[in-house]
Design goal:
The chain is mainly alpha-helical.
Length: about 120
């Protein structure tokens, strides 16, 4: 099966774990040693609102390739009516777009590109 044919929510499922792992490692490397503090800081990166803002910034800065934008749009346009109570559907779909992109890049074994995206998000 081609990676492009995989359901975008499945890509987002994978992308979510990779994204959160990057964030957790980054925060630990910043010297945060308390689990409660780690969790509070992680929310600044892993919430749907934050992920949507990071994706919007990348798109506004022409950081993504056409191929990557296609994946994001597929995820953003996926028909779903469910979303977390703490954010609106549009924000949720943008966050899903970012997670889907990361999941897609992982399955394509493009780890360097994931690093570039995460460095953009982390401001490095």
């Amino acid at each position: 099966m081609q990676t492009r044919e995989i359901n975008v929510l499945v890509l987002a499922y994978l992308g979510d774990t990779i994204y959160e792992n990057y964030i957790r490692r980054y925060l630990i490397k910043q010297g945060i040693a308390n689990v409660n503090d780690l969790q509070k800081e992680a929310v600044n990166f892993v919430s749907a609102k934050s992920q949507a803002a990071f994706l919007t910034k990348m798109m506004d800065n022409n950081f993504l390739s056409e191929e990557e934008i296609t994946i994001v749009k597929r995820a953003r346009n996926y028909k779903t009516t469910s979303h977390p109570k703490n954010c609106d559907i549009v924000t949720y779909k943008y966050a899903t777009g970012l997670e889907s992109l990361i999941g897609y890049l992982e399955l394509e074994n493009r780890k360097e590109r994931i690093d570039e995206i995460m460095n953009f998000i982390l401001g490095e």
